[in-house]
Amino acid sequence: MIALAAGTTNWDVLKPILAESVVQTLQMVLTTLVVGGFLGLVLGVVLYGTRPGNLFENAVVYRILDIIINIIRPIPFIIFLAAMQPVTIKVVGTSIGTLAAIFPMCVMCTMATSRLVEQNLVTVDPGIIEAARSMGASKLTIVRTVLIPEALAPLILAYAFLFIGVLDMSAMAGYIGGGGLGNFAIAYGYQKFDQGVTWTAVIIMIVLVQVVQGIANAIAKRLLRRGQ
Amino acid sequence: MTNDAEPIIVFDHVVKEFRQRGASGKGGKSTRAVDDVTLTINKGDIFGIIGYSGAGKSTLVRLINALERPTGGTVTVLGTDITTLPESKLRPIRQKIGMIFQQFNLFSTKTVAQNVAYPLQLDHWRKDYQDRRVAELLEFVGLSEHANKYPSQLSGGQKQRVGIARALATNPQILLADEATSALDPETTSEVLDLLRRVNERFGITIVLITHQMNVVQQIANRVAVMSAGRVVEGGDVYDVFAAPRQEVTKRFIATALRGLPDAERVEAMHRDNPGRIVSVVIRQRDVTRDGGDVPASGQNISETIARHPAVATSMLYGGIDTVTGQGIGAITYEFTGGDADLEAFLAELGERSDLVDFGTAERPVPYEQAIEKGGAR
């Protein structure tokens, strides 16, 4: 028997699945944000630094990274997920499950983060970097103590923006058995014509996004108030 | 100023070229920002480097702390040839060279105290020593009560004083000031210049001052170099250069600083109101010795010459005498009227022992630039 009306949804069965889905989503999103966010930060600093005229100026490295990122970023994630399958098997050992979803998510997140980081670092006044150089600060010290602190407020907003992007990616994990809220909404809501279930998942995601964006806004606002 | 001058910065035939960006591939055009500069700056100097924007002075000053590397020649700072010194070995040198900037370049996310402490952290000072040094520096620049503010809460003059405190933190021997007062109003400029003079006098720090404002040089420098198109076209003791400039570019700069010489608009106005011959007489208190020949004092014979030529009517229109490194300098502008022959004889005699800037009459005015460049170039 298929339950057609919302009133007949069996929440006793769905509740544990929903809970597991939330956990899976958080697992995927947080792992991706930490790993991809960090690698993207490094890659973004390299991108910014190797730009012509910057600290580690290197036209060859910049061109190569720039091209790689430009090739990967426009690929729709659901296709990227499928295309990465052979690599995922090599790296993770399987192409199915939450972990198998996390790997391509991290790769895509690294690419997106690097671009956002680069764009935010470019706005740091080069005069400030020159001042630090004039005091004898090494290049890596400048990155750590000047460049990133000066760009911190917009970087935090950029990461909040990334959170939403990563959440979006995680919704497609269901296609390779990764589970998560996206999969829950499709499998138990959309495919069973149960709007109530679909919207439950949607609302949880909205709440997640609101909380993260709210926290990021508050931090950025505090940082900006002293910086302006 | 002293005879036992000890060189602290020496440029020897320094060239700096920049490869033009934009056009892809190799063999792009290169511009020569610094062109064969040979210059010695002595310990204790307040050395002004003046030039229009694009003259290469900002590049020149950045060669001193190796923010830019020369394409040719050698740069010696504090006895060390830094021309090809690797970046890793520059740190001890850079810590002896403070730098302040036109846009202050303070760290916007650090407080005033944190800004000043930054170079101390780089130098791995103990925290309590850092705190004591920061307090001492903030007191010296008069900003103790602003220690916990952020740069955005300060005025321009205050920001520059933070910049100075930060630049002095590690007890440097040289302070580079890159257009340090160009973003400030005249009153604040004087305050900052006074502070720089105190830095020089109290700590014996050599100051290299880049500017396009001649009055900045006049107010605090003891030596000056004039840059134009990458070259040092003229230089020496500030009074000497002010009193007997040789290059046209120098004369134009000096005309902007000495209140004695009227500007073009004022000359025009004087022509409108006065039909006679408008002439500025340069006042130079003493003879000036420069390596292209001596220049005698000027303007010491005005009264006697006027007295000797009763046929020429005189009225004083404009003037001012300034002090440059303690010596008087300036110009007084007169309207002289009389018969052509009388006037020429009078001006010839006056010109024997004075430099004249002849702006002509209302009917036949001499173009301003031409008058300035001709005057004093006898």
From TrEMBL, chain A:
<keyword id="KW-0812">Transmembrane</keyword>
<dbReference type="InterPro" id="IPR051322">
    <property type="entry name" value="AA_ABC_Transporter_Permease"/>
</dbReference>
<dbReference type="GO" id="GO:0005886">
    <property type="term" value="C:plasma membrane"/>
</dbReference>
<protein>
    <submittedName>
        <fullName>Methionine ABC transporter ATP-binding protein</fullName>
    </submittedName>
</protein>
<feature type="transmembrane region" description="Helical">
    <location>
        <begin position="28"/>
        <end position="48"/>
    </location>
</feature>
<keyword id="KW-1003">Cell membrane</keyword>
<keyword id="KW-0472">Membrane</keyword>
<keyword id="KW-1133">Transmembrane helix</keyword>
<dbReference type="GO" id="GO:0048473">
    <property type="term" value="P:D-methionine transmembrane transport"/>
</dbReference>
<dbReference type="GO" id="GO:0005524">
    <property type="term" value="F:ATP binding"/>
</dbReference>
<feature type="transmembrane region" description="Helical">
    <location>
        <begin position="196"/>
        <end position="220"/>
    </location>
</feature>
<keyword id="KW-0067">ATP-binding</keyword>
<keyword id="KW-0813">Transport</keyword>
<dbReference type="InterPro" id="IPR035906">
    <property type="entry name" value="MetI-like_sf"/>
</dbReference>
<comment type="similarity">
    <text>Belongs to the binding-protein-dependent transport system permease family.</text>
</comment>
<feature type="transmembrane region" description="Helical">
    <location>
        <begin position="152"/>
        <end position="176"/>
    </location>
</feature>
<feature type="domain" description="ABC transmembrane type-1">
    <location>
        <begin position="22"/>
        <end position="216"/>
    </location>
</feature>
<dbReference type="Pfam" id="PF00528">
    <property type="entry name" value="BPD_transp_1"/>
</dbReference>
<feature type="transmembrane region" description="Helical">
    <location>
        <begin position="89"/>
        <end position="111"/>
    </location>
</feature>
<feature type="transmembrane region" description="Helical">
    <location>
        <begin position="60"/>
        <end position="83"/>
    </location>
</feature>
<dbReference type="InterPro" id="IPR000515">
    <property type="entry name" value="MetI-like"/>
</dbReference>
<keyword id="KW-0547">Nucleotide-binding</keyword>
From TrEMBL, chain B:
<keyword id="KW-0029">Amino-acid transport</keyword>
<dbReference type="InterPro" id="IPR050086">
    <property type="entry name" value="MetN_ABC_transporter-like"/>
</dbReference>
<dbReference type="GO" id="GO:0005524">
    <property type="term" value="F:ATP binding"/>
</dbReference>
<dbReference type="GO" id="GO:0016887">
    <property type="term" value="F:ATP hydrolysis activity"/>
</dbReference>
<keyword id="KW-0547">Nucleotide-binding</keyword>
<protein>
    <submittedName>
        <fullName>Methionine ABC transporter ATP-binding protein</fullName>
    </submittedName>
</protein>
<dbReference type="GO" id="GO:0006865">
    <property type="term" value="P:amino acid transport"/>
</dbReference>
<comment type="function">
    <text>Part of the ABC transporter FtsEX involved in cellular division. Has ATPase activity.</text>
</comment>
<dbReference type="InterPro" id="IPR017871">
    <property type="entry name" value="ABC_transporter-like_CS"/>
</dbReference>
<dbReference type="InterPro" id="IPR003593">
    <property type="entry name" value="AAA+_ATPase"/>
</dbReference>
<comment type="subunit">
    <text>Homodimer. Forms a membrane-associated complex with FtsX.</text>
</comment>
<dbReference type="Pfam" id="PF00005">
    <property type="entry name" value="ABC_tran"/>
</dbReference>
<dbReference type="InterPro" id="IPR041701">
    <property type="entry name" value="MetN_ABC"/>
</dbReference>
<dbReference type="InterPro" id="IPR003439">
    <property type="entry name" value="ABC_transporter-like_ATP-bd"/>
</dbReference>
<keyword id="KW-0472">Membrane</keyword>
<keyword id="KW-1003">Cell membrane</keyword>
<keyword id="KW-0813">Transport</keyword>
<dbReference type="InterPro" id="IPR027417">
    <property type="entry name" value="P-loop_NTPase"/>
</dbReference>
<dbReference type="InterPro" id="IPR018449">
    <property type="entry name" value="NIL_domain"/>
</dbReference>
<keyword id="KW-1278">Translocase</keyword>
<keyword id="KW-0067">ATP-binding</keyword>
<dbReference type="Pfam" id="PF09383">
    <property type="entry name" value="NIL"/>
</dbReference>
